[in-house]
Amino acid sequence: MVAGRRNPYRRITVSTPRTVSLLPSTTEIACALGFGKALVGRSHECDFPAEITHLPVLTSAKLDATASSRAIDDRVKQLVSSGLSIYEVDAEKLRALAPELILTQSQCDVCAASEDDVAAAVAEWTGERPRIVSLAPQTLGDVWGDFTRVATAFGEPERGRDLASRLTDRVTELSERFGSEVDARPRVACIEWIDPLMAAGNWVPELLHLAGAEPLFGTPGEHSPWLEWDDLVEEDPDVLLLMPCGFDIARTRRELAPLVQRPGFADLRAVRDRRVFLLDGNAYFNRPGPRLVESLEVLCEVLHPEHFAAARRDLGWQPL
């Protein structure tokens, strides 16, 4: 459920399928649609809303999530180059839960268990196999459409359309709140990985546009691109936003050394003007679900403090 908002859906139909969600965003979508009680299993990364954290965990990663950014990247590249999956699905535990529906993704093999991982886990099942609904959003429009895809899998597509309508209304309200009052769009660089450098793509450039900013790197609807330090220095952004994939604010702060110790970092315009911010990428920007609207709220607070109170400071963002 979207934080701070009452879920209007309290009824679950008798035919609601037993469901496993192997992606944090699909878990959040299912709960926002009112199907949280249908969930019987989750991924190791599903941590919101709090009421799902008691569910059995069905996935694990073949890497040390506590390692440094560089070590994680090296391990990911090693696994991928070897043709191996980064994640494991506990096939035995999954089968014991007897789900009728599995929610997963095919957008990014690095981010979570993929559709192929799930298919392999159920390959030897006899009898009727669960339906697999796999999402691959690239844009905000894709995310809103996925609400209906998930709701349709539960047999109530109107819930998805209603949720998308309510959230897009909030987006419109936010983007129009400051409107023409913004004198100039700040030039913003969003960093999705620190070592090596990666810029944020997919829906993040769209969020920046909606928040009255000009994204310097990343293209709407395209995967996040690698970024050269010299390119960042040359563009010299007005604002630098750090939102590493899978990291909260505290973890991002611990990973700063490879960035802030680079020659010339202190000379960047954003650093000189004290407009470098740490954002909770894990809870907000990295998850293509209902909280992308809250991600937009975070951007509005950071980029336009004259129009927005710092309601999400420390929860969603902190200054460097």
Features:
320 residues; alpha/beta; Rossmann fold; six-stranded mixed beta sheet; four-stranded parallel beta sheet; 13 helices; 37% helix; 14% strand
Question: How does this structure look, described?
Answer:
The protein is an alpha/beta fold. It has 2 domains: 19-165, Rossmann fold, CATH 3.40.50; 184-319, 3-Layer(aba) Sandwich (Rossmann fold), CATH 3.40.50. It is built from 13 helices and 12 strands. The protein has helices at residues 24-32, 69-81, 91-97, 115-121, 140-153, 157-178, 204-210, 229-235, 249-254, 257-260, 269-272, 281-285, 292-303, and strands at 19-21, 39-42, 59-61, 87-89, 101-105, 131-135, 187-193, 198-199, 214-215, 239-242, 276-279, 317-319. The strands form 3 sheets. Strands 7, 8, 9, 10, 11 and 12 form a 6-stranded mixed β-sheet that branches. Strand 7 (187-193) and strand 8 form a beta hairpin. The chain is globular and about 65 Å long. The relative contact order is 0.12.
Structure in a nutshell:
With 320 residues, this protein is an alpha/beta fold. It is built from 13 helices and 12 strands.
**How many β strands by DSSP?**
12
Alpha carbon gyration radius? 20 Å
Query: How does CATH name the architecture of the largest domain?
Result: 3-Layer(aba) Sandwich
Stated plainly, the CATH topology of the largest domain is called Rossmann fold
Q: What is the helix tally?
A: 13
- Rounded to the nearest angstrom, the distance between the terminal CA atoms is 30 Å
pLDDT < 50 stretches: none
Describe the main β-sheet briefly: 6 strands, mixed
Q: Mind telling me the CATH class of the largest domain?
A: Alpha Beta
Order of helices and strands: EHEEHEHEHEHHEEHEHEHHHEHHE
**What is the overall pLDDT average?**
90
What's the number of structural domains? Answer: 2
The CATH superfamily of the largest domain is Nitrogenase molybdenum iron protein domain
* Coarse morphology: globular
Strand content: 5-15%
**Percentage of residues assigned to helices:** 25-40%
Which structural category do the helix and sheet elements fall into? alpha/beta
